[in-house]
Amino acid sequence: MFARVAALIIGSILLGIGINGFLVPHQLLEGGIIGLALLLHYYFDFQAGLWSALLSIPLILYAWVKDRAQFHGSIYGMIVTAVFIDLLAPYQFALPIWVSAILGGALCGIGVGLMLRYKTSTGGTDLIAYFIAKATPLNIGLLIAIMDVFIVLLGFQTLGLQSVVFSSITILIAGYLASICYEGYR
Questions:
Q1: Are 178 and 116 in contact (CB under 8 A)?
Q2: Is the pLDDT of residue 8 over 70?
Q3: Does the keyword rRNA processing apply (predicted)?
Q4: Would you say 22 and 138 are in contact if contact means Cβ atoms under 8 Å apart?
């Protein structure tokens, strides 16, 4: 129980730092539900954490039906992650875009992977990836990356090619590190 709570808090803090500290200053996307919330933040100045939680509600309800243990980890993970994303919003670092893409992806990937390893999640598309990976031989990191690429492409029209390219780097790193943290290095 202690390890699960620690993973939830540490993973949420890593996500909050990765998103706000490195992605937001360059209008980069993380992908998934958080990526959709970031798009809303960039377009309408909505709070990214709050909107990631609101957009995750249908997925959380699905977890309630399919896997109660995952539901409990996801509902808490969704709330704690949303709080840390919004709480850490003022903390941004002025680094070159390529450094921000790498560090943001690394922190987000480790945060998500750590949470998934201890049966918690942000309640977003990583929850979808968890259920698909559980039912198929597909790699959870690859599933997260595929869904994240789709979200990043949604931002192309407004954010431009540079954001798409560096956001893609971010999500590939995040997907790879989430996979390693969740399954271990193979």
A1: yes
A2: yes
A3: no
A4: no
Distance (Å, rounded) from C-alpha 138 to C-alpha 130?
A: 10
Nearest-CA neighbor of 116 among 153, 162, 67, 149?
A: 67
The residue range of the domain holding 170 is: 2-183
Q: Determine how many CB atoms are found less than 10 A away from the CB of residue 12.
A: 28
What contacts 163, CB < 8 A, 6 or more positions away? Answer: 26, 27, 28, 29, 155, 156
pLDDT value at position 186? 54
Domain count, the chain: 1
Instruction: Count Cβ atoms within 10 A of the Cβ of residue 54 and give its class: 0-12 exposed, 13-18 middle, 19 or more buried.
Output: middle
Report the run of H or E that residue 104 belongs to, with start and end: helix 97-117
- What is the rounded radius of gyration, in angstroms, for the C-alpha atoms of the chain? 15
